[in-house]
Amino acid sequence: MMPTLLLQTDAQDEGIEMCSVRVGQTLYGVPVTRILEILGRPAKQPVPLAPSYIGGLVHYRGEVLTAVSLRRLVDLPEHDAVEDILVFEGGDGYFGLLVDEVGEVMTVQPANFESNPSTLDDRRKALFAGTYKLNNALLVMLDPDRLDPMCLAETSPA
């Protein structure tokens, strides 16, 4: 049996698989292991009187999925394009994350990770888990636990 420290080092050398998503001009990444499913352009229903970050409700395998709009969370204007949804399991059941487009799965190296800059406002610090430096871009890391509608309800103004 290999020592635990050696196993952790090997895992870090292999990198972390991220699913890239785009919202506006920004590239975001979500650990692949956290995504249950990607729904390509499902129909969503608006939720009257819901907090602004709720993008709608979606039928998902016999359940109703609350979808959080990343576009609204980062204060981008609405657009008419149909969005994709990443499905996660949260503390209170399944939830979705609406994004403009799902990209590719890429492997990032822990050595290329930078924590959030101190100049980032508190709201964005609560949403973003840091940034990975890519060859020609930055990949803003999203932590699904921070995007869970129940977590957002506790930390965000309506």
Automatic annotation (TrEMBL):
GO terms for biological process: chemotaxis; signal transduction. InterPro entries: CheW (IPR039315), CheW-like_dom_sf (IPR036061), CheW-lke_dom (IPR002545). It holds the Pfam family CheW. GO terms for cellular component: cytosol. This is Chemotaxis protein CheW. Residues 15-153 form the CheW-like domain.
